[in-house]
Amino acid sequence: MQLLFRPREPRYQGEGILPFGTFDDTKKWLSVTRYLEMGAEKFPDKTMFRVADKDGNLTESYTYKQTNEWANRVANGLRDEFGVKKGDKVGMYMLNCSEYVASIIAIHKAGGVQVPINKDEKGERLAYVINYSDMGVLIADPGSVPFIEEIAKELKNLKVIFVTGDGKSFPQSIGGIKTLSFTSTFDRFSTENPGVDVRTTDMERCMFTSGTTGMPKGVARDHGGVVMTVRSYLQQQGVRSGDVLMSILSLGHANAQVMCLFSAIGAGATAVFYPRFSASSFWKWAAECGATCANMLGAVAEYLWAAPGSDWDRKHRIRIMLGSPAPRNLREFQERFGVRVIDGYGSTEMGMVLWKDPEDHRPGSSGYPMDGYYVELRDPQDVNRVLRPFWDPYENPTPPEEAKGLLYIKPFVPHTTLNEYFKDARRTREAFDDDGFFNSDDLFARGIDGRYYFAGRFSRIRVSGENVDPIAVQDVAMRYGAIQEAIAVGIRLPNVSDDEIKLNITLKPGETFDPVEFSKWMAEHVMVAMVPRFIEVYPEGFPVTATQKIKMVELKEITDRTWDRGKSGLKFSARK
Asked: How far apart are CA 496 and CA 302, in angstroms?
């Protein structure tokens, strides 16, 4: 299939060229590591990626040649000594580091399937991902070892764990599973390209996201999906070989991988990774690493805006940022920091489906569908009815309820979107209709201008940049001894782009409830994003209608009976 690569105005385009072309002809696509190998030959001494330490100091730097050779050593070791063959699952559970980058690329080169695990997963959910994915090999950092030790007795298929770092700060085995040093193990293997025939039609990842049964679900996608999103990113962001792509997002997520690491490879550019986000240091870091492109998710924009002004606000070279969503005060944000922010919409399952052109300065929309996708809005109450645009956003900036519909997506290019929910035929079947449309579970309104405007999530919510399923939250909460019933809902506070969780509960007869103790208990069992901010106890039961249906609108209200963790001083931090 031939796609159309749209040119950008010079002010939205980076310096340099696209050494591997614009990826318009889908028949000529290669797996992304092939482009790394080409880069290692064409410009071996150019910096491929850099990594900072937890304080933001840039401590490591690797050229295209060094990156390729390091990944080759790991890939050859995985294949020749540890039996990883095409299609085998290899897990990664760590904070951003150079070994994470090398591991992702090496798994590709060996023909394996990467299984990145959210750095904040732990306990039962962590064991579930490791077991359910069928991974035999896991690569982890020293900080992850205690979390693995807690569940070691529950692990079934894992044969070896490679630990990064100095090789001295971990046990020789964990629960009977062999534990080896990542560095000393793989440094002895060949630096030659493994030569495994990896195609865009082969499975590339099994990435676990929040599930509706209380456990994460595995999103299985092919290598073609990487190239599709890389192509769109280069087009929309104007990325060229002279650019420096910076990410403060976890490499366990698709954004940091595809729209930083892989896009840098596809453009012959440079990627820079930080292990954490700091609103007060972000622009200083950007200036120090020479970043020209960066991405924001969730509330990152609000945190940057709320940070005290500094001289670094405009000392950086960032030209363009992807905001998903864009800041609400878009014009003021762009003027303060001297950047162009463009909005877009994507998902782990579908990639980037909607994207705004940087030349389009109309605020509020997520733009238009990207090449390779057809989208339509359907009535949430009758998904067989397609909504036709009638709303004029120029006359009324707020779409009426009848203009809001579920976004259904049909991919045109094979092997670029969700193949299946891993080992879950029922959920896969439910995600697509008979015509091959995927139900995004997100609400949009389409204006008569043709743009799509995000209107909210239908059932999922997004907290601190993480997709969270309310059903998964309430399922865990109901395991707490005092709770009889639990209903979790998402609440959107004014001028904040992310959601907050409100947990509504009833108690078992005679039980008492301490929200502080419950929150601490919850934080021990789930990732931080799933711990509710608001909790309300209903002593007389949930409010119901005359027909005994729960009044969900009332459950979303903040009342004088609602406990707010934000006001209690109780805080939980993601793993850093």
From this structure: 7
414-470, pLDDT tens digit by residue? 999 999 999 999 989 989 999 999 999 899 999 999 999 998 878 767 787 777 878
- Residue-wise pLDDT tens digits, 34-90: 999 999 999 999 999 999 999 999 999 999 999 999 999 999 999 999 999 999 999
283 Cβ neighbours under 8 A, 6+ residues apart: 304, 310, 312, 313, 315, 316, 337
Tell me which DSSP letter residue 520 carries.
H
- Residues ≥6 apart with Cβ < 8 Å to 1: 25, 26, 27, 372, 412, 413
Two tokens at 345?
């919409």
Q: In terms of Cα–Cα distance, which of 186, 162, 159 is closest to 175?
A: 159
Task: Work out the pLDDT band at 171, boundaries 50, 70, 90.
Answer: confident
DSSP 8-state assignment for residue 314 = G
φ, ψ for residue 75, nearest 5 deg: -65, -45
> Per this entry, what is the length of the chain?
576
What separation in angstroms does the CA of 49 have from each of 62, 247, 336, 533, 564? 6, 11, 29, 37, 42
- Residue-wise pLDDT for 224-263, tens only, equals 999 999 999 999 999 999 999 999 999 999 999 999 999 9
First to last CA, the chain: 43
Does a cis peptide bond (omega within 30 degrees of 0) precede residue 325?
Answer: yes
CB 349 within 8 A of CB 418: yes
Sign (positive or negative) of CA dihedral 375, 381, 387, 390 = negative
Q: How far is CA 423 from CA 206, 427, 452, in A?
A: 11, 9, 33
The sheet with strand 534-537 has its strands ordered as: 483-491, 500-507, 534-537, 563-564
Strand pairing report for 293-297 and 89-93: unpaired
CA distance 466 to 414: 27
Question: What does pTM read for this prediction?
Answer: 0.86
Q: How far apart are CA 172 and CA 168, in angstroms?
A: 9
| Closest CA relative to residue 21, chosen from 267, 257, 258 | 267
How many CB atoms are closer than 10 A to CB 557? 14
Of the listed ranges 145-149, 280-284, 402-406, 566-570, the one predicted with least confidence: 566-570
Q: Are 220 and 106 in contact (CB under 8 A)?
A: no
Continuous segment of H or E residues that includes residue 180:
strand 177-181
Give the C-alpha separation, 140 to 91, whole Å.
Answer: 8
307 CA to centre of own chain: 24
Angle at 396 between CA 393 and CA 399, to 5 degrees: 70
DSSP conformation class of 544 = B
Q: Strand 320-324 relative to strand 340-347: parallel, antiparallel, unpaired?
A: parallel
Nearest to 357 by CA among 346, 343, 338: 343
Residue type, 246: M
Beta-bridge partner residues of 50: 61, 272
CA-CA distance, 118 to 528, in Å (whole number)?
11
Structure tokens at 516: 């502080």
